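Task card 7
Instruction: Convert sequence to structure tokens.
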Amino acid sequence: MKKHLLSTSAIALGVAMAAPASAQEWNMKWGGFANTHVGITDVSGTGVTGADFDGVDVYTNSEIIFSPSVTLDNGMTFGFSVQMEAMNNGGGAVGIDESYVTIESDTLGKVVLGSENSAGYLLMGSVYTPGVSSMAINSRSLSAFIPVTGSGGFRQAALSSLTEVAGNNDVQRITYFTPSFNGLTLGASYAATSAGNTTNNFGVNRNAVGPVFDIFDIGAKYSQSFNGVDVGLAARWGTGDTNTVGRSDPTTWGVGGTIGVSGFTFGATYAENDNGFAGGAGDQEGWSVGASYDIAGPWTVGLSTYQGETSNGGGAPSSDYEAYLLGASRSLGAGVSWDVYYAYMETNNGAVAGNPGIDGNLLATAINLSF
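Output:
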């Protein structure tokens, strides 16, 4: 698979370099989003003994995205995307979330080179759990207001079905997507190492202990409409190599689907991370279910949940995560919407004596800008 991916990229680059120069100009496109939440919380449980997380707070999630591109006379489009986090604790050390080059055409498909999530992750994202509000339930976003204890890790199944092998994120990667065949798109990715996030590797020592190496991901999605019924299906699988003593090679897999009819959208996802540690410690699984209804006019309402579990091994209780979100969103105009929502989240830490837990209620509103 590794050789095939590398060959595909080499062919794409070779065709592009052999093409005649284009008189076309670059499309200097930029955009982004800004989601700002104001919420009031009520948090309790043995996991927050002596702390006070009750009260009003503000949470902002926003990015500026630069995505210039040019289409040559031969029909091939070259593009570049860099996503700059608007908050200092986002992205990498300098606030850059993703940075990658794309090469695509109707017949070639699409090649992605650089710091981006895997093909499996991106294709699973096409069946994201339906619901309402920019406070995503199929992620750990609620931890912006309510602390999480003991459950899962970033890009892993206890907190989100949008998983990566061993939780890697935006590492240097080669990805290829096929053109759509009657709604079916396939994808495959290769990354040399799980170390780093939007950084160069500067040499990869595959005999080193710790990171995961030679990460392969595959995925598929199907999207089609039948007499007013919209159907979306997706699946992914990935694995990598590790030299950590006592640890087997980690894997992840997931499936999901959505169906939309007469203003209603229903969907569900399921994912697992096998992280390869003895006794299943650190293995994770999770699932989501959601529904939304687009009311005639500017309002959409929805209800969604995510349920996750992390194995602690050695006979210890698992660490569990559950979250629910009921919300409504009103479109105010082009690229502007207003959310109101209620969320409940509960977690526990089975790896700690007494299995301390945290539960919290959140009532919030948000203004969302997309430009």
